[in-house]
Amino acid sequence: MPTINTDVLDKYQLGSNNKNKDPNQLLQGDFLKLMTTQLQNQDPMKPTDNGEFLGQMAQFSTVSGLNDLKESFTSLANSLQSNQTLLAATLIDKKALIPTNQAQTIAEGEKISGALAIPASTSNAWVNVLDAAGNVIRKIELGGAQEGLKDFTWDGKDKAGSEVAIGNYKFQGFFQTGGKDQTEEASMYLNSTINSISLDQGQISINTQDGATHGFSDILRVG
């Protein structure tokens, strides 16, 4: 039986002497060497069946293709994460609508805006502004609202029209569901300034002016 020369594999760097390869990974060169070794040592009276030989080649091609596909998806995921991080960085110092009910007035006369998430049409909706002691210092009437987000703005004044002191204030939204006395609390969103972003184990977080941290996916809108 003629000898099969394997030097050509090394010539084209298909051999298994790859310094950077994973010791648990079978490379193309390793596979070809195994195949040629099998051909060299086969029984000349019972040579390898062509179908079996082609089956082994197809199996390796399938596994190799799956590995290439996995690497492509990993590369795509890394690229998307980099793009998302760059996008998040452009949001610093901008206001984003995020799920929260607390905000901080940072200057006299500052206005705070947000939105209620109304699950169904209502004849009346409103926002209560509470101080640190839990007292309602202002009620903002919004009137009727359709299903979706209902925007509101607080001018930083109490019931008497006086400017409130700098501090933390809580917001509660309500809407009527049927009769005059039937009410439900609505989910609250406030426009908060993004001070910085954080990246931890591939997850992007935004840090807002009130000291809270939110997920990047929590942002409903910007501006």
Commentary on this structure:
The protein has 223 residues and is of the alpha+beta class. It has 2 domains: 7-89; 95-222, Immunoglobulin-like, CATH 2.60.40.4070. 26% of the residues lie in helices and 36% in strands. The protein is built from 3 helices and 11 strands, in the order H-H-H-E-E-E-E-E-E-E-E-E-E-E. It has helices at 7-11, 28-40, 50-89, and strands at 95-99, 102-105, 112-118, 122-130, 136-145, 148-154, 167-176, 183-200, 203-208, 213-215, 221-222. Strands 1, 2, 3, 4, 5, 6, 7, 8, 9, 10 and 11 form an 11-stranded antiparallel beta sheet that branches. Strand 9 (203-208) and strand 10 (213-215) form a beta hairpin. The longest helix is centred in the N-terminal third of the chain and has 40 residues, at 50-89. It starts with 6 loop residues before the first helix and ends with a strand. Mean pLDDT is 76; it is low at 1-6 and 11-17.
Shape: elongated
Low-pLDDT stretches are 1-6, 11-17
Number of strands: 11
Strand content: 35-45%
> What are the secondary-structure elements, in order, as H or E?
HHHEEEEEEEEEEE
Into how many domains do the coordinates divide?
A: 2
**Could you please say which CATH topology of the largest domain applies here?**
Immunoglobulin-like
Number of helices: 3
Q: Tell me which oligomeric state these chains represent.
A: single chain
Any idea of the CATH class of the largest domain?
Mainly Beta
Largest sheet: 11 strands, antiparallel
